Amino acid sequence: xxxxxxxxxxxxxxxxxxxxxxxxxxxxxxxxxxxxxxxxxxxxxxxxxxxxxxxxxxxxxxxxxxxxxxxxxxxxxxxxxxxxxxxxxxxxxxxxxxxxxxxxxxxxxxxxxxxxxxxxxxxxxxxxxxxxxxxxxxxxxxxxxxxxxxxxxxxxxxxxxxxxxxxxxxxxxxxxxxxxxxxxxxxxxxxxxxxxxxxxxxxxxxxxxxxxxxxxxxxxxxxxxxxxxxxxxxxxxxxxxxxxxxxxxxxxxxxxxxxxxxxxxxxxxxx
Amino acid sequence: xxxxxxxxxxxxxxxxxxxxxxxxxxxxxxxxxxxxxxxxxxxxxxxxxxxx
Amino acid sequence: xxxxxxxxxxxxxxxxxxxxxxxxxxxxxxxxxxxxxxxxxxxxxxxxxxxxxxxxxxxxxxxxxxxxxxxxxxxxxxxxxxxxxxxxxxxxxxxxxxxxxxxxxxxxxxxxxxxxxxxxxxxxxxxxxxxxxxxxxxxxxxxxxxxxxxxxxxxxxxxxxxxxxxxxxxxxxxx
Lengths: 271, 52, 175
Description:
heterotrimer; A: mainly alpha; 8 helices; flat; C: alpha/beta; 6 strands; 28% strand; disordered C terminus
C-alpha cells in the first residue's frame, strides 16, 4: 500500500486528504448507507402496523429505533469498560482513545434511547417519564457517562486523565447490566425484552425491522468508532506535540538562565 | 369522561422519533468528520498513524 | 509566552536587547490556573455524586414499583388510605360515572374496583393491564385513582379478537 497522504482512492472510494476516512471505513460507510435506506423502507413502509390486542398501530415503528439504539449504547459502554481495563494494564494512548470514543458514541445512543422511549411512553403508557426501575437505571447510566466525558475535560494532564477516567469507565459499567435486567429483577412499567426469548412475541417484517435495526445500529457504531477513534488519536498526538513544544520552551529558558536554574525547571523538564 | 391523551396522529410521533434519530446521528457523524479534518490539518501525515 | 528556539540560547543581558526570560511574572497566574484545574475533576465528581444521589432519592420505591391487585387486597388493613400504585388487568367494559370512570382490575383471580378521575391513556380498554396511582377509600371497597397508565406488554403478534387467556399470560410474567 502506498503512503497515506497520496493514496486517497478514486470514485466512491475517494477520500479527503485530511479526513479520518480510510478505505475500510469508506466501504463500510457505503454498505451502511444502503442498509439505512433498506431499514427505513422496511420500518416505515413495508412492515405492517401492530394489530395485537393492545394495538400499537403505527406507533410500533418507534420500537425499531428505540431497541437498536439501546443495544448500541450497551455495546458502546461495554467497549469503554474493556478499553478502560486494557488501558490500566497496558497504559497506552490507544486504549484511552478507544474508551473515550466509545463512551461519547454511547451517550449519543442513550440520548436517542431516552427520546424515543419518552415518545413511546407518552403515546402508550400515558406518561413522558416515570421513575420505574428501567427508566431510573437508564437515567443513571446517562448521567454516569456524561460525568465520564465531563471528567475527561476537567483533567489537563493526559496520563492522569486517562487513569482516572479508566477507573470511572469501569465503575460506570456496573450499572449497565442493571439497566438490562431491571425489567426482570423488579416490577417495572417498562415491558420485558421482546426478542430475548426463544419464542418472541413478534413476527414477520416487524421482527425483521427490529433485528435489522440492530444490525444497522452495530454497523453505525463501528463506522462512527473508526472515525471517532482516529479523531481521538489525532487529538492525543496533537496534545503530545503541544506538550513537547512547551517542554522545549522550558528547557530553552533553563539554558538561557545559565547556572541560575531553579530546581523546579529541572524536574519538569525531566518528567 | 376523562380526557383522552395522545390525540395527535400516531404518524406525528413516529416522524418525530425517526427525525430525531436521523438528526442526532447524522449531526454527530458530520461533527466527527469535520473535527477530524480540522485536527488532522494540524498534524503532519506521518503522525496520523491510523492511516492505511 | 516567549518562544525560543532550543538550539539558540539568547544569553544577552536584558538592557542589551536580550529577551526577558523570567517566568516569574506569569507564574502566579499559571499556578492559579493549575490549582483551578486540580479542583475541576473533584467538582465534576461531586456534581456527579449529587445527581446520582438525586436520582436514587427520586426513585425510592422503584424496586417495588406497583402492588398487584391480590396484594393490594391482602394488605388492605396496613395500607389504609396510603398512596400506592395498583396493577391489574382491566376486566369488563369500563363505565362512566360523571367525571369518573369505573372499572375492575384483576390479578391472580382477585378483583379490585377502581374509581378513576383524570386523564386516560388512549390505549385504555378492557383486557389491558394497567397501573393506577391512588389509594383505598375509607371503607376499603374501592381504589380511588387519579393517575392511570397502560402497562404495555411485549406482544406484537396479530390477534383478530380478544384473547380469553390474556389475563393468565399477564400473571405468569409478573410473579
